[in-house]
Amino acid sequence: GQQLNQSPQSMFIQEGEDVSMNCTSSSIFNTWLWYKQEPGEGPVLLIALYKAGELTSNGRLTAQFGITRKDSFLNISASIPSDVGIYFCAGQNYGGSQGNLIFGKGTKLSVKP
Amino acid sequence: NAGVMQNPRHLVRRRGQEARLRCSPMKGHSHVYWYRQLPEEGLKFMVYLQKENIIDESGMPKERFSAEFPKEGPSILRIQQVVRGDSAAYFCASSPPAGGGWGEQYFGPGTRLTVT
User: Which chain A residue shows the shortest CA-CA distance from B4?
Assistant: First the structure.
């Protein structure tokens, strides 16, 4: 089945630093979504991308839908302690099962004050 | 609270018992999805439902697992004769009718099932 490769697996950064993480796939996706999950909670939607090449921002977060439709990245600028959590990418493929979100394994972010 | 609601948040069952997990979608949403998450893993799709219809159950185990979304009331994920391997966090998500099952999905807080 389709798989998403998300990297890095974990990051330890200093408060104020910028962060970059990405997802790649061997097949095309039509939608890319980025979520953040904190311990004991459900994923919270951060950014949704619908067009190849699309660049979308949400506060200090910026995400892009790759031109090839096989990748996406998420940047966080000027990180703060509350950015700590696990960030997941998820993709949808119109050729696949309707509604089926495929998730990466997550990037665990730790921020040192 | 206009978000996706799930209950119970934590459920402990002994091997062989039944587990029932409930999900109420966001107000106005008509599409419900169930996902399972193992520790240190991403979420894995199980089933997609609309009111009174199962649209896609390609991620559901063939035995012991069933899901429904009745005309009235919450969506239910039912696991019969639970085994230790069923221990996981189960998340429900919903999306608005306009998307037709595509696009943004909003997740509930999850039910953590522990099988002893």
Answer: A42
Give the residue carrying structure tokens 């089945």.
Answer: A1
**Which residues of chain A have a CB within 8 Å of the CB of B35?**
101, 103
Q: Is B101 left (phi over 0), alpha (psi -120 to 50) or beta?
A: left
pLDDT for position A93: 78
Quick one: A95 exposed, middle or buried, by C-beta within 10 A (0-12, 13-18, 19+)?
exposed
Give the closest of B42, B55, B95 to A105, CB-based: B42
Cα–Cα dist B45/B40, whole Å: 16
What is the C-alpha separation between B31 and B29, in angstroms, rounded?
Answer: 6
pLDDT tens digits, A29-71: 989 999 999 999 999 999 999 999 999 999 999 999 999 999 9
Question: Nearest-5° angle of CA B36, CA A81, CA A38?
Answer: 10
Strands of the A71-76 sheet, one edge to the other? A4-7, A19-25, A71-76, A61-65, A55-58
Q: Which of B40, B59, B108 sits opposite A42 (nearest CB)?
A: B108
- H helices within A1-113, ranges in order? none
Could you list the mean pLDDT of each consecutive 10-residue stretch along chain B, which spans 116 residues? Answer: 90 98 94 93 92 92 96 96 97 84 88 98
Q: How confident is the model at residue A8 (pLDDT cuts 50, 70, 90)?
A: very high
Q: Is A103 on the interface with B (CB under 8 A)?
A: yes
